[in-house]
TrEMBL record:
Record-linked InterPro entries: Aminotrans_V_dom, Aminotrans_V_PyrdxlP_BS, Pser_aminoTfrase, PyrdxlP-dep_Trfase, PyrdxlP-dep_Trfase_major, PyrdxlP-dep_Trfase_small
Keywords: Amino-acid biosynthesis, Aminotransferase, Pyridoxal phosphate, Serine biosynthesis, Transferase
Record GO cellular component, one term: chloroplast stroma
Broad enzyme group: transferase
Provenance organism: Gonium pectorale
Protein name per the record: Phosphoserine aminotransferase
All copies of domain Aminotransferase class V, residue ranges: 6-349
Catalytic reactions on record: 4-(phosphooxy)-L-threonine + 2-oxoglutarate = (R)-3-hydroxy-2-oxo-4-phosphooxybutanoate + L-glutamate; O-phospho-L-serine + 2-oxoglutarate = 3-phosphooxypyruvate + L-glutamate
Length: 362
């Protein structure tokens, strides 16, 4: 691989496209002849202003974001959104609906409990997602929150759930811009950047404008969407470098045919791995229902010989494929294959899986 790089299957922070890194490397010391690094520039100067404006415009083009939605570049990770959402969209005592399909939506739900009356409308089993038609939504809920892709379990919604006209909120941290999404069906979409977009340090929030301006008076100023909307994400010093890299990634995706093309590639990549699992005569197992298998995070195990999993991870590492260990809460292996993972990396892993199985199958 160029620059002696490995195939990194980390769930996050994840890899970035190598051409983006190369461009960033050149800009790191002297951004486009300005004599300064982006990291050193005033965020109020015209150079950085052009960077953040272009990043937003390109993201709007990629996701076809309607004009009545605001785009914010915030700090605090997706985890801070777990509290910003109830603080801005519900009053104490209001009811909000949460659908729990894995570890991340559970965390979001637990955080909301601090601020309002939480109804768990449906619960998944980490293998499937409960059919939206069976969700027990409250008649008077302020919003419905779900996680579009559970990074740990590898469970992904394949379409936008119908919540009967309620305000729908989605954590898309681990599948943001991996596929086209009809933003108009959502009240809020949020995503930490460090999986599919850019470096850690920036969280992207897309929010319908009528949902801005209702924060509880006691909430910290930094947790008020309105303050960030009014200040174009520059109420305080923004994570300039992270935003700049996100902009490069958006530009690259647009040039490469947008999210339809990206989805096609992601489907192809995921199919290579799921096929390797399916054709292993049971040597490997994917615990997830085929209907909702994630295109981004592919967990798998060696069910008949779990002792071999350590050796698998070690040998893969020796062959230049890193970070394949499953999340500590589930064990086994997990291959995260976000947008920036080249198809060659996935092919190499599938070949390795076949060879490993051939060596060890009983
Ligand atoms: N939501 C999902 C789906 C995630 O995968 C993660 C992190 O892995 C988070 C939220 C938390 O993100 P952050 O670390 O940016 O707070």
């Amino acid at each position: 691989q160029p620059h002696g790089r490995v195939f990194n299957f980390s769930a996050g922070p994840a890899i970035l496209p190598v051409d983006v890194l190369e461009r960033a490397q050149a800009d790191l010391v002297n951004w486009q002849g300005s004599g300064m690094s982006i990291m050193e520039m005033s965020h109020r100067g015209k150079e950085f202003e052009s960077v953040i404006q272009k990043a937003e415009a390109d993201l709007r083009a990629l996701l076809n974001i309607p004009a009545n939605y605001k785009v914010l570049f915030l700090q605090g990770g997706a985890s801070t959104q777990f509290s910003m959402i109830p603080l801005n969209l519900a009053k104490a005592g209001d009811t909000v609906d949460y659908v729990v399909t894995g570890a991340w939506s559970k965390k979001a739900m637990e955080e909301a409990k601090k601020y309002c009356n939480v109804n768990v409308a449906a619960k998944g089993d980490n293998k499937s997602v409960p059919d939206p038609a069976t969700w027990k939504l409250s008649a008077d809920s302020r919003y419905v929150h779900y996680c579009d892709n559970e990074t740990i379990g590898g469970v992904e919604f394949k379409s936008t759930p119908d919540v009967g006209g309620r305000i729908l909120i989605s954590d898309m941290s681990s599948n943001f811009i991996s596929k086209p999404v009809d933003v108009s069906k959502y009240g809020v979409i949020y995503a930490g950047a460090q999986k599919n977009v850019g470096p850690a340090g920036v969280t992207i929030v897309i929010i319908r404008e009528d949902l801005v301006g209702h924060v509880r008076p006691e909430a910290p100023t930094m947790l008020d969407y309105k303050i960030h909307v009014e200040n174009d994400s520059m109420y305080n010093t923004p994570p300039c470098w992270s935003i700049y890299i996100c902009g490069l990634v958006f530009e690259k995706l647009l040039k490469a045919g947008g999210l339809e093309a990206q989805l096609e590639l992601n489907e192809k990549k995921a199919a290579i791995l799921y096929d390797a699992i399916a054709s292993s005569n049971g040597f490997y197992n994917s615990p997830v229902d085929p209907a909702v298998r994630s295109l981004m995070n592919v967990p798998f195990t060696i069910p008949s010989q779990p002792d071999l999993e350590k050796a698998f991870i070690k040998e893969a590492e020796k062959a230049g494929m890193l970070q394949l260990k499953g999340h500590r809460s589930v064990g086994g292996m997990r291959a995260s294959i976000y947008n920036a993972m080249p198809i060659e990396g996935v092919q190499q892993l599938a070949t390795f899986m076949k060879e490993f199985a051939a060596k060890h199958a009983k």
